[in-house]
Prior knowledge:
Layout lengths: L17 E6 L2 E2 L6 E7 L6 E4 L2 E2 L2 E6 L2 E5 L5 E9 L2 E2 L7 E17 L26 E5 L11 E9 L6 E7 L10 E3 L5 E8 L5 E6 L5 E12 L9 E11 L26 E5 L11 E9 L6 E7 L11 E3 L5 E8 L6 E6 L5 E10 L11 E11 L26 E5 L12 E9 L6 E7 L11 E3 L5 E8 L5 E6 L5 E10 L1
Parallel strand pairs: 2-10
Antiparallel strand pairs: 1-3, 3-7, 4-5, 4-8, 6-7, 8-9, 8-10, 10-17, 11-16, 12-15, 12-17, 13-14, 13-16, 18-25, 19-24, 20-23, 20-25, 21-22, 21-24, 26-33, 27-32, 28-31, 28-33, 29-30, 29-32
Amino acid sequence: AGGMSLDSYTFTATYPPIINSLSPSSGSSLGGTSVVITGSSFTGATSVDFGTTPAKSFSVISDTEIDAVTPSGVGVVNVNITNANGSSTPSAQSTFSYSGYFPLSPIRICDTRTYNGTSIIKNQCDSSGPETLKSGSTINVNVTSSGVPANATAVVVNVTATNTTSNGGFLTIWPAGAEMPTSSNLNFNANSTVANLVQVGIGANGDISIYNYTGSSDVIVDLEGYFAPVSTVSYAGLYNPLSPIRICDTRTYNGTSIIKNQCDSSGPETLKSGSTINVNVTSSGVPANATAVVVNVTATNTTSNGGFLTIWPSGSTTPPNASNLNFNAGQSVPNRVIVPINATTGDISIYNYTGSADITVDLNGYFSGSTNTVAGYTFTPLTPIRICDTRSYNGSSIVSNQCDTGSNHTLISGSKIQITSSGIVGIPVNAKAVVLNVTATGTTSNGGFVTIYPAQSGSAPIISDLNFNQNATVANLVEVGIGNSSAVDAYNYIGSTDLIVDVMGYYS
């Protein structure tokens, strides 16, 4: 029998495209967002549409990747890819949101302490009696029943732990329904009251989840704002990061660490018990038509236990029933604040509850209004993930990450570390700013602080992001632009400290 010759054939898949993910999955209504689309059967794609509008441009990188630039649009749309064999099928993985930030005057939505009719008011977390978190327990807090629309993607909340019973405690906060991450948001010891701002994606049933690691703790949640689809094409709700700058310091000017600013123009304005100071934010690079600012507020030289600051848009003489940072006598305590701006005066108000306290205010960025003409960026939430831990790897609670690839990287006095913040763990290479929860631990000196800023040559700016004394574990949310080498820098002022960095999301 004669031999049989087989011809060689090149097979091309005869399937319509399938979309597995969009990165990012939200962007400005003005269009112009670069989106990486992953999936399959992209070879030969003839069109990429966002809703019914073609992408401004797209490039087929491979059979599994297309890079597209969004057109203008509103709301939530389906991304559709077409090739000779058909079009992709709509799915949750192919939806894109044209979104922006909507700031709110702070409102308390959850307080697990027992209702007393005055300072502890009725809210969703005490409807069936107080729900103090026990060791290892989780509470779900609904955020879409307090003025946040059902289609919102993320919220900004100030979370406070109080009545704590154990040393080495912490809370972890994440979108309900997702697997609990290996991260933390605020750390505390027994008999502490500690607050931190949290920017977190909204999960199942419009909830966020809060887990308490050890001991028992009450939890207070104040709603500050939310990210949601927009209904009109405009500049509204877009984030513009700024090079960090100190705009207010009520301490006495000394020409070095305490510099001239608007809050010392007529001598120091230390806040007395029950007093309020107005700080203008539209004279430091923030346009008059911005809607909200991102600031880091620090209370220092405090004289009373059980003190707190409340920050809100100026205009009302009575502060809302909310708090932003809590402190005892002799402490220096920071917290990030995203607060609406009084549209008429350009001011925010800061109220001190009891005793006296000096304050510093460091400006980090702003959210644009509808009449702004400078394009900004939109937020994409991530399930929190640890990207840096300078402590020695132990294979369990301290896992491998970019900050322990060599020897231990504990920051010594006057040193800085560079943290890669784009092109990793879900953060695209075109991200412009990141939202990080930064924790300092293993501290060896009193009066220490860490400064986080866009990676650059030269010295760190005169600002601070988290303050601590010896043997402390302190966390703070940081919103920071991405600088040189796709990174941010972390500078340690004095003594040594380890740093833990959890990424909560990014702007692009």
